Amino acid sequence: MKVKKTVILIFSVIVALSTSGKDKFHLIDKGQGTNIHYVGHSQVVNTAIEMLTNDSKLISSPFKFSSTLSEDGVVVGVIGENIAFDKLLIKYKIDVKGIKNQWEACHIEVSGKQENILFVVGSDPRGAAYGVLELSRKIGISPWMWWADVVPSRKETVTLPFGFKETQKPSVQYRGIFLNDEDWGIVPWSSQTFEPSTVPYHMGPKTYGKVFELLLRLRANTLWPAMHERTTPFYTVKGNRETAEKYGIVMGTSHCEPLMRNNAGEWYKENLGRYNFKSNRENIINYWAERLKEVAGTETFMTVGMRGVHDGRMEGVKTSAEYRDALHEVFDVQRDLLKKYINPNVEEIPQTMVLYKEVLDVYKEGLEVPDYVTLMWTDDNDGHISNLSNKEEQKRKGGSGVYYHVSYWGSPHDYLWLSSTQPALVYSEMKRAWDYNARKLWILNVGDIKPAEYLTELFLDMGWNIESINEKSLKEHSYNWAAREFGGQKTAEIAEVMKEYYRLASIRRPEFMGFNKVEIEGYPRGGLMPVVSPDFTIDEAKKRVADYDAIEKSAIEISKYIPKNLRDAYYQLVEYPVRAASQMNKKFLLTGQPALDAYNEITKLTDHYNMEIANGKWNGIMDMKPRNLPVFESANYTHKDMEVGRPNPKNSLTIYANEFNKSIGIVRTITGLGHSNQASEINRESAVEYEFTIEEEGDYEIQLGFIPMQPANGGDLCLELWLDDKYLGKHSIKAKPFTDRWRANVLRQQAIIDFKQNMKVNSTHFLKIKALDNDIIVDEIKIMRW
User: Fold this and answer.
1) pLDDT band for position 116 (50/70/90)?
2) Exposure on the CB side of residue 158, measured as CA atoms within 13 A
3) 316 CB neighbour count, 10 Å cutoff
4) Alpha helical stretches, state H, 60-120
5) What is the pLDDT of residue 18?
6) Burial (CB count within 10 angstroms: exposed 0-12, middle 13-18, buried 19+), residue 77
7) Quick one: average pLDDT of 30-35?
8) Which domains does the chain have, with CATH numbers?
9) Does the structure show a pLDDT above 50 at 372?
10) How far is Cα 178 from Cα 402, in angstroms, rounded to an integer?
């Protein structure tokens, strides 16, 4: 009887497996990829299919492509492109009404009739391409397969159940990145390692092809190409434009590059004269017209308006009113040029006016931007969006968008080396932009792409599906990302290490550890201040070293558990940024030989990145001292027993923002934001109250730290304070960009209100904060007796 029962059990399992196999569509079956059919002629769809076919070679025997229509395997098509394909959709009752006439939408469905067909349907060619590359994700390919060496594991079987349906479409119409400040990373790497050229600082179609491929994998569609003075301009390199077309990428240009011209590399003053619209109008118009003739018929998103040749004010104007009036003339001329060379119906041409730096002030002086032009708002270069559309601006035909930074060259200090913006800040600011209807164009300044991989994907994931991430699922997003990149090994531990990495950087970015500034008048090399002593207390410095040491040791320990074929990926995405940031802090917060050792360790880590991982593939892309700023210099030898920092307070108490004992109105905690990692936003007319006791009577300094926001629609950032029953007045935390107060806020990532108060022991104290405006986000409260 026992034997008989065993046989029945085994037979039951075999039947279950067999039935299960019949109920599924096999993308890969017994190590063999399925067939894939496409009878259309859209270049981007064929490109995506080629990418998928090549991807499948890393997983199994490859998918087999056919340009004839067949009722088996994967059938790809664009609605309305091919009559036979449309008839097939009807035959198999594939409902595509939800994506018809939509922008870049895709629908994936396994036939409900149990025939062996998987349909990938696009509302347009890019939509179909995104659908095809969704299959690449499903067989186990990371978007960072090439850019971060995330080697996929081979598979015998990958299936989807019969009846499987998935529909996707973008939340933001145009989503992309800006390659910027490229002089120390992607351009030297491209011209010397990946795509060697006799032309210095050359980026050609081989490199841009890899960039465009990444964008497609990340479901993006727009690129602002590299544009510094030394970089060969995009349109002057043979094959660049054609490669953009192959990958279906919309080309644009940055805030200071109207009508697709790369001024920094193309405006030759010796031949063309000053870039002054008032005094050199004809040459400038001809210069713009020349490029418009060249790009006619290609897909572009035109920047309009005018600034200086590079990142500076418009020449020939002194006041904001003069600037405004000159721009009105520029708009008229540019409209005529676009009508003549691109489309007689100029309102159909995607166009944006980037309200960056001084241009925002000009806009507020009454600049009238044509209604069909997209208003592109910007952050303050450090992640806090400076302005968003009010109710009237939200009615504009051109809508609005956002230009956002996770890499920056400029005041108060560059951060071009390590990518350390808190993901929660990126999330909360871009969600705020979405809520203010900035949904037309999102561009992220990613520097050299590396090492901003995770933040780039987070930004573009939000642009693709704003509902896919919320405050509660943000942690899950980073967890899932780590699981995908590193084969599911030590996922929770990796996510925790990175959370702490971002928190510590929110207190002070690694590039800000010199406690100095750039672009300060009176200093050499364009205003580079020398480093000064860290402005931490002795205990804060010690704790910071200990916290960094803990995550550095964790990162090293975790690496032992990462599969060998993924260790290069782990080094790029986790180990290098964590260890380099740790050593940068040790360089400044330790003394003597340990400080010198920290500098030497950064050198070793960077050499390993460039020379050893991936067999030298990335040689030249990671520079440990971009622009050779003072902060990157070797440590000065000091006595090893010296303590770093200011004297400690006699007593101190820190209260995190979410530790309020009472709230009135609407208050939400943003996990992962601020020094506390628990910053709390107080809506207008809402309030929070904190309860605390002290151990010793005396005079105390109470320091309130807030996220250094900018008001969404101008106005102010005001709040009221009470301590116990005493009213402490109305306070503003608003700081206009490029003022001294703003510089201080950016460098410490907090806007500070502090005051002194005599307090008694043996009693409970209450601190109340009431928001008089929106965008008030409390981070932490420090109570100190010196």
Assistant:
1) confident
2) 22
3) 15
4) 83-91
5) 33
6) buried
7) 97
8) 20-168 (3.30.379.10), 172-247+395-470 (3.20.20.520), 253-370 (3.20.20.520), 501-632 (1.20.58.2150), 651-785 (2.60.120.1620)
9) yes
10) 12
pLDDT band at 243 (very low <50, low <70, confident <90, very high): very high
Give residue 642's pLDDT.
83
In order, the DSSP letters of 176-231 are: EEEE-SGGGTHHHHIIIIIS--SSTT---HHHHHHHHHHHHHTT--EEE----TTS
Beta bridge partners of 2: none
- Tell me what the pLDDT averaged over the chain comes to: 94
Write the single-letter amino acid at 731. H
Structure tokens belonging to residue 65 = 């492509």
Q: What is the pLDDT of residues 443-481, one digit of tens each?
A: 999 999 999 999 999 999 999 999 999 988 999 999 999
Nearest CA to 784 out of 694, 669, 705, 710 is that of 694
What pLDDT score does 114 carry? 61
**Residue 609 DSSP label:** I
How many angstroms separate the CA atoms of 25 and 113, rounded? 11
Chain centroid to Cα 74, Å, comes to 33
Beta carbons of 780 and 654 less than 8 angstroms apart: yes
Tens digit of each residue's pLDDT (9 = 90 or more) over 37-90:
999 999 999 999 999 999 999 999 999 999 999 999 999 999 999 999 999 999
| Coil, strand or helix at 25 | strand
Q: How far is CA 684 from CA 345, 658, 688, in A?
A: 44, 17, 12
Q: Note if the bond before 737 is cis, omega within 30 degrees.
A: no
In angstroms, the CA 206 to CA 728 distance is 62
Task: Count each helix (H run) and each strand (E run) in the chain, helices first.
Answer: 22, 28
For position 113, what pLDDT does the model report?
A: 66
* CA atoms of 548 and 543, how far apart (whole Å): 9
Rg (Cα) of the chain, in Å, rounded? 28
Cβ contact 771:733 at 8 Å: no
* Residue entry with tokens 């210095």: 200
Give the number of other Cβ atoms within 10 Å of residue 72's Cβ.
Answer: 13
Q: Name the phi and psi angles at 101, rounded to 5.
A: 65, 15
- Is the predicted pLDDT of residue 160 greater than 90, yes or no? yes
Give me 540's structure tokens. Answer: 């804060």
508: helix, coil or strand? Answer: coil
C-alpha–C-alpha distance, residues 500 and 544, integer Å? 11
% of the chain residues with pLDDT over 70: 96
The predicted-structure confidence for 532-583, as pLDDT tens digits, reads as follows 999 999 999 999 999 999 999 999 999 999 999 999 999 999 999 999 999 9
Is omega for the bond preceding 451 within 30 degrees of 0, making it cis?
yes
Looking at residue 476, its pLDDT comes to 96
As a whole number of angstroms, the distance between CA 278 and CA 285 comes to 11
